[in-house]
Amino acid sequence: LEGISGIYIVTKLVGEEVGQRHLQSYITFDKGGEWSLIKAPSNLEKCPTDGCSLHISQEFAFHNPFTRFTPPYSKKSAPGFIIATGNVGESLKSSPSVYFSRDAGISWKKIFDGHYYYAFVDHGGVIACVEKFGTTNILQYSYDEGNTWNVYTFYQTPLRIYGLLTEPGEKTTVFTLFGSLPESHSWIIIQVDMKLVLGDECKKSDYKIWEASDLRNNTEHCLLGKKQLYERRDPNSRCYNGHNYDRIISSDSCICTRDDFDCDFGFKLEWRGWNEICVPDGDFSNQVTPSWCQPGKFYNFSSGYRKVPGDECIGGVEDQYRPKLYACPIKRVTEYLFYTTRNRIYRYDFLTKESIEFDLNEMQNVVSLEVDYQSNILFYADITLDRIVALNMNTGNVSTLLQLNNSRVHIEALSYDWMNGNLYYCDAGFAEIGIINLQGKHKKILVNNAVLDKPRALMLHPKKGIMFWTDWGRNPQIGSANMDGSNPISIIIDDIKWPNGLAIDYDENRLYWADANTDKIESSDLDGKNRKVITTEVLHPYSITIFKNYVFWDDWVKRSILKIDKKNSANPEIIIQSVFNGMDVKAFWPEKQTKDTSPCDHTTCKFFCLPIGIYPFYRCTCPGNLIDNGNDNCTCPGSEIYENGECKARTTCTDNQFKCKNGNCIPISWKCDKDNDCSDGSDEDKSICGTVECSGDRFLCDGRCLLNSWRCDGENDCIDGSDEKSCSTNNCTEDGKHFLCPNKRCIPIYWLCDRDNDCSDGSDESSERCSFTTQTPSTQPKVCQSNQLHCTNGNCVSFYSRCNGIDDCGDNSDELSCTISTWQPPIVPLKCEVGYAYCADRSACYEKNTRCDGMYDCKDGSDEFNCKTRMTTSAPCSGYKCNSGECIPQNKVCDKKIDCSSGEDEAKSVCKDTSVDTCYPAPFSFNCTINDGNCYPQHKKCDKVVDCGDASDEDPKVCKVTDRVSNLDYKIDKTSITLKWEHAEVGLKDIDGYRIVYLDEYGKITTISTDVVTSYNVTNLHSCRYYLFAVAVAHKKVKESNWLYTSTDVLKTEGIEAPKGAYDIRIYSSFISWSEDSGRCYLDYEILYKILKCDKLVGEIQVDGTNIKNMDNLLINNGGISSLTYNCSILIAYENVYGKAFNVTSDPFFYKMYSTVIVPSRRQGNQTFYGSKTIIWAIPVALVLIALLSGLIAMVYKYRRLQRSFLAFAARGSYAHQDEFDDDDNMAVGFRSGEDAPMINRFSDDEPLVVG
Fold first, then answer.
1. Where are the LDL-receptor class B repeats (predicted)?
2. Which domains does the chain have, with CATH numbers?
3. Which of 349, 381, 624, 1109 would bridge 853 by S-S if both were Cys, CB 3.0 to 4.6 A apart?
């Protein structure tokens, strides 16, 4: 089915002999997930046999010379419409009828008996049929979706018809018939234009909302994981849709359910209790380890299910059914060394001296690892993906323990408490040490940035209840605390600069660490006493580990892993060479993780039991999202309640909202609308929806309140058709304002003689009643009307055909002096998956169980709003004190990352004299000569403050040569920027000039060389793009790099254009939608909130998304009156990344309740017109590029040649071969060798038009 994804119709051979017509038709609405017989048409009095269904002829019957049936016909521009040839019964027969479906094959009705050609024009606005065999001069057409049919005589005598075509493009209303005289073969081409039948352009009130969904069971509103709403012309409205008619109103991804998945290859469906599940089929199994699987590699382990191809659902049960990532079997060894090189993990066997490489899928930047030796589980942290992963080396199962989704997260170290089953991690980004409970997957921050600055390594001593860490921040040190985070102290503070690696000798209870600045490996007691240097034969050590009597470490300069005897400090020995980007190193053997009796073995802590170094040697504590009231009493903050592992708000909904069972609030108009808006189904509960009450001007239908004018209008708006049943006509004419049609339809009296067939039987427009006759289609041009355009060649076309990119006149005069414009589709609103909640600005989603865990998952920090103050120490703040009392390190102030809950550490008043400390490619930042893993902004070079451990940023040979450019400033003028800077007086003989370099948001760097000037105008910039600018001195004495003297300030523009708020506002029946700015122009802006403002209302109404589902109820619930017209506008509040907030208000629009739109009498300010005669100017009409226009002209040229070709032939005999033609196919006419009859075949557009 063209136009709607996932719907297919097939013909199945159910008998052994094809000739006996053992063919049945089946339909699927989920791309083959489920198949069913096609429901027989409802307008049949009785099926020929019991259990009969509709069977449709397809390509097989078309090519069969005994049948020559016309194949089914559907178009992308007419979604949901199908017209087909077939019959009702047990199988396909040779005596066909023509059937039509308007709802994508769910229901059908018979329209004709016999063989017909058929086609659509104007998005399905007109359906035409003509008899296929025999002779005829009658074209039957319908403009109300096949409810009624009209007859048009297109020729004076009957013809033998060989085809019915339409012109390319959706603007057309022209049908083309080609045939010949029956007595002597002479080609005749006839064109019938239905434009006059349709009349004027459609207005907003001429459309209804149609949902593409599987309504067979009245519940499924999603097709292939999408919920799509279309705008289709009301069948009772006779008007012209037009080429620029926009079909889809919204297309949202649905939450994944079991219906979105099929059984995977090798599995079959089987009933287990009340559920239908996928189980292995017979002896086949894809669950065995693949033969190619090697240790360290991974393969997909099927769950038995696969998502239906093309399905676009998200979230829900997707993780449950997707394949699992399993590791290939890994032989267990007893003594080994693990080490990582960012994108690889290796295991080195101490006995065999062999290494195994772990090529982990999706692994990008692993810097830390740990092992549960007893369970044979490898833990590793990826700082690019912000996740901690567990790999079971016994089963191959891979699982994510923690996904943090925050750009600031930087997991530097992992350490496992093998006695109590908890995993500790060190986050250098937030300067925190946290814990994960592997059983319940709860987490908690134990030590925060009030104690830590730049933590790197982390080690645990579970038997002592103590943890240790290294910190290489402003005050380098080695610290320790109880394993619950209490009693933090510094144990090593002297003669220490860059303490990278840290290890514990559990046999002798000694600490070992490596300093990359002093180039030493040292050790001490657990309290920092008895300090001893192990070796100075290191260059740049990173990680360190203990294996029995040896110390192992990786060296960045030597690019190797080395070892040394911890007792006898002899020369180091290289164990593994060619270790590039070596990061964490950990050694394991049976005696390392021996589990003794733990103080937590006999406790009943609900969440965490943590060992400590003082009596009673353990402490029960709560996860970070709960409040610890002591004595293992954990509660949710405020009035929230704890359910299923997370805190849920006891939400109080407003009067115009509905409260879901899960605590969420939704607009009251969303209740009982057949959509599961609550996500738990409570808004569609039968006990609630069965008692829905509608206002006096509406009636209840499928749990929805529809306008009374939709009842008894001849159109089934209710699924069960109840709105067209028991239609009483007794009171139709009593008020003198209505007219009773012969078919019992009641219409307003002013609908009489308005040239619209409102009765469907033509009685309201009959010649006896009206003083005019209904216009019929004509093949001859008419005198141009007031709403038509007069072409240079004398033709008349619709006035709205001007500048549509199509040659409607035939001489292209309607396309002269046109400009091209573009149109942007509306933004698809964000939807959060189950278990996730919206950030306040609706720009992202975060996990509910991460609320108030001290980590900012939302850009606006709303997941940490209204939380109780996090635990801090009582020590005085040595850094920057936030308004909340929280203490953060001074180096986190003005670093373009919000650390204070209110964001004051990044306020302009605080950061007015600082530059953005952001890592950009050279020349906007630099690395130290000995790379310490960080990048620094250029203004930190030669600023007399040492930032690099090797002091390369203050090298006197570099810094004494010249002063740098300073006070860089700019001025924006559309697509150019004028840069200005200052530079101290220098000798011109030493200066080549200046280099201007700028970086765009795509990472492209452009360099411009200038003379010795102090300003420059950079041109040809994109008006909607962000740029970084820098200016450097090109000094003759500096050969290594021209960028050593880059400006003090790296300049970042905010983009030249700002968001323009809501636009392209569209009004439907109690439904409005709009578009919002999107794309790269506005990446630095966030939407804070949206407000609907209407006059005559006391307050303002906050809205979400880009549409309002029930505008009438929304106004009434906010004090509106149904008889009034409202002047409304939409306000959107934005904020840029620098904290600047501003509002943008849309153009006003007029709205009258219950689908009446008021057209302003004159334009005031920036008002938008919505009248039927002016709305066309509100939608861009020139969407076709010059290349496409040239192609269309070529197609018209070919089409005219085709006409001349047909007329050029004189037939000699009866027609022997025919074919079908799609709208987009060209045609060739010719004679086969040895035959008298013409032959018609289809060929592609890139082939020539051949007449043979």
1. 465-508, 509-550
2. 8-202 (no CATH), 261-327 (3.30.60.270), 337-591 (2.120.10.30), 651-708 (4.10.400.10), 786-815 (4.10.400.10), 880-909 (no CATH), 916-967 (4.10.400.10), 968-1014+1025-1036+1062-1086 (no CATH)
3. 624
